[in-house]
Amino acid sequence: MEKRDELYAGKAKSVYTTDDADRLVMVFRDDTSAFDGKKKEALARKGAVNNQFNAAIMEKLKAAGIPCHFEKMLSPTESLVKKLDMIPVECVVRNVAAGSICRRLGVEEGLELNPPTFEFFLKNDDLGDPMVNDFHIRSFGWATDEQVAEMKALTFKVNDVLKQLFLDGGMLLVDYKLEFGVFNGEVLLGDEFSPDGCRLWDKDSREKLDKDRFRQGLGGVVEAYEEVGRRLGMTFEY
Ligand code: C5P
């Protein structure tokens, strides 16, 4: 497998084509951004930590029967993935209220959501990723009824697997964002799962161990990500 041209550069990852038209290389960079790119910083080691964290989580999800684009790690900061036709929405599950739902609905951070709630957001930086519903997704042709149902079912299945995994490491999975795409007609989990795209709190102290440390200027961002990995038995190479 040969890495070729940069296909695009996102805010934290770059994607390269390969000599296989159905495979891409994802490169995890140290760049970190929040508030639609208004706050930006490079955090040493973050690319390597997130790549290796994502690989370990994707392997767990695959083992639980969730179809993923992830194939294998290529280096401390690079992974090989299947090339998907991305569905342009973000799927968010929330077990505990935090972040935008507190601002939008006036609920207090930390409120347990039982049952967990689900939201779709349109991936569009210029519009600030507005919340959309199933009807928007169908009316604008972003996905079919079956794909909408599949994204929801897979996002909740991920919750079943990861809520327990993090709990075993003494952490609460507060919320997370997933993205899906289509490969040979099948909906697969794409993008990444790392502390950049979820909220994780220490179960007892409720200390934040995720990207809220960056958003809120709490410091120790990558150290917290490494601590999460350590609690799950991961070791990182740099
Ligand atoms: O900001 P909000 O509370 O809606 O985010 C919900 C979850 O989705 C958080 O874990 C956040 O890190 C993640 N998210 C993300 N990328 C976005 C928006 C939200 O990873 N563009």
UniProtKB/TrEMBL annotation:
> Top EC class per UniProt?
ligase
Tell me the leader sequence span: none
Tell me the GO BP annotations in alphabetical order. 'de novo' IMP biosynthetic process; cobalamin biosynthetic process
Q: Which domain of life is it from?
A: Bacteria
Q: Where is the SAICAR synthetase/ADE2 N-terminal domain?
A: 7-231
Name the Pfam families on file.
SAICAR_synt (PF01259)
Q: Which GO terms describe its molecular function?
A: ATP binding; phosphoribosylaminoimidazolesuccinocarboxamide synthase activity
**Record family assignment:** Belongs to the SAICAR synthetase family.
Q: What protein is this chain from?
A: Phosphoribosylaminoimidazole-succinocarboxamide synthase
The species is Alcanivorax sediminis
